[in-house]
């Protein structure tokens, strides 16, 4: 059997992961007792496809979609090119039909009316950050400390003076911290947000949208998080990273990245009257715009944002079942591979 320490660790040793059947024109070839490591196994399969031996079609016996992708991702240490190539191979054999199924995007002039027609609840205010969580947090702090201060005023002796004074100063301390270190205040507000009934749904909907749209556009995902203050979907693409750092993003790549960046905002806009998680998305989009060459003019930047919201929103509406599947998987803390599998199963 193939030496796969990762499978042994996950107790997948009972799966015949080294068996493969090459089927073409009545020719069959059973591969077993393969002794190479993960990279060698990957290169072997790659070479078989490249050489088109027997006009082959690869069918992996005993290997599920999840097993194969996890194996490739782990053994190649999540190298972006290798992950993309593995997913491309899975797509060729019919296991990853939705991977890079929407590879071409083309920017065009977009109006607010189109966003409204698509179903955006409040298209003209999508880019305006909601202050709901901030206001609720500050109101709670001021209201609670004020109420406790009134009660503490009934304490006997000096306690009735000092305790209300200390409680009253809490609001001032909160404001001071927010002025000096906004990040700390934002973290506190984020923690407070979990008390809103729609919070978990918003986060899952938002991040699942980034994940799904990136997958449909052919951008590999390294990881994601729904943790408070760390909500993100982490993409891996070494070629794009180099272009971003060098400030050499062309219009085509900016368009693709813009669609992924605006997917979370679009997902919230299709569901809720007010969007809460758009600040980080808009910051990310601006980063891509600043790294583009030639530079995008201010008026064109506004149109790019609208178009990206429209395009990503259209993808989400047309793939609503897939979006819900990713949301459900993320809510259960599924791995990246399990999220991909959820997409492909929902597409059947």
UniProtKB/TrEMBL annotation:
Domain of life: Eukaryota
Entry keywords, A to Z: Membrane, Transmembrane, Transmembrane helix
TM regions (residue ranges): 12-34, 54-74, 135-153, 165-196, 208-226
One Gene Ontology term from the biological process aspect of the record: proteolysis
GO MF terms, alphabetically ordered: ATP binding; ATP-dependent peptidase activity; metalloendopeptidase activity
SUPFAM superfamilies: FtsH protease domain-like
UniProt-recorded name of the protein: Uncharacterized protein
Native species: Centaurea solstitialis (yellow star-thistle)
